[in-house]
Design brief:
Chain lengths: 263, 219
Amino acid sequence: MLIAQVTTSIHVSIGEVAATLVLVALAIAVSFWRKADLEADIGIAVVRSAIQLTAIGYVIKFIFDQDSLWFVVLLIAIMVVFGAFTAQRRARQVPDAFWPLLLALAIAGAATLGLVVALGIFKAQPRYLVPVGGMVVGNAMTAAAVTLNRLGDEMTRHAREVEATLALGATSTQAAAPIVRRSLRSGMIALVDSTKTTGLIFFPGTMVGMLLAGASPTDAVRLQLILLWTLLGSVALAGLIAVTLAYRNFFTSAHQLREQPEP
Amino acid sequence: MLFELDRVTMERDGKVVLQDLSASLPKGASCVAGPSGSGKSTLLRLLNRLADPASGTVRYGGADVRERDPLELRREVCLVPQLPALLEGTVQDNIDFAAALAGVEPDVPRLLDLAGLDSSFADRTASKLSVGEQQRAMLARSLALEPRVLLLDEPTSALDEGTRGAVEATLLHLRERVDVSLVLVTHDLAQARRMADWVVRLDEGRMVGEGHVREQLAV
């Protein structure tokens, strides 16, 4: 139980946080200078991140204080629902994408957390399950959204090829198989690539946070590996469930395309 | 009759594409002719249930097509689309895919020959063929299903004049070699005269004529 041994803490003052606004000002200046038209968006992003993270900080503190797994389940359930709504906006071309996304995030989250607890990697306590659950659901949401975005795009662009395959008497599963394969790949590839390059091109956030908080580099690296490998599993599961459920929404039960391609 | 359409209405994006259409297509070589947007391709899709009408009945061999398993029906009544849409891989991969659906062992050289291609095309990458060659590869792939009916959606519309003549010759020759009925969609009345014995003429989703080509399309 690696995590249980890491007992570091760090105090960050409001002044230190405020000082980083200098770098935000730099970003706004760059946008203004090069006419990127992102000044307002950067301002909104800074304000929203401050409010949202502060709020969730208090929520997490409350859940830690209660020390009840029911609050963990409630928090993750809320994340899953909001995650499905958010991902749905990236999958506008997929009919009824919400339910596949909701199931994908719920099952990926539950299965991943269940496995890491069952394997003895983390204790079934809020202080472990809340941060890990947040990372799992967040990454699963991104992967599922990218997967369904690609699915919708390809099903629209390649509708003629899909119908030509259906015209041979193939099932909708057979006709959509190449597109499902490419969609799943696109949903997983970002995390696979970042896992390949971790430590070479960038230091991942958890490791950096632990090093800043005073943990030993060995512990920081091990925890980071646990999280990266856990996320690989959850992202694969979320993409697979989302695309497996969602591609069916393009077809009728008689293996016809719901939206006929232009003749 | 091979196909009968009984008061068929079909809508697309809220617009009526076929309006209360009744028509028949016999065995042999038939043609659905009409100008662009008259509903020809939509009608073809109804014949093997790639689409279902909003109302009315489509019969194949006297039975409502909705009573048939759609996958079996499509292997028996196979549609070759207007533009080539082959799977990734070689021509042989495409033929093997179709043959596996029908549960048959394909005679690839013969299928290529029937479609007017020599056997060296088997190993060619499908996406690298010319449009005319892809159209022929689509035909070979469909023939691998050993269908009873081929539905051909404007099979020469994407081809130049020389290639069009060669594909027409292939299709005419095909009927002499294989026991298969053809239903051809075309906007070209001269092609309808050359290729078919029977014609159903459409305009704006309505039937404007039906009968033997020599009567309906007399020059």
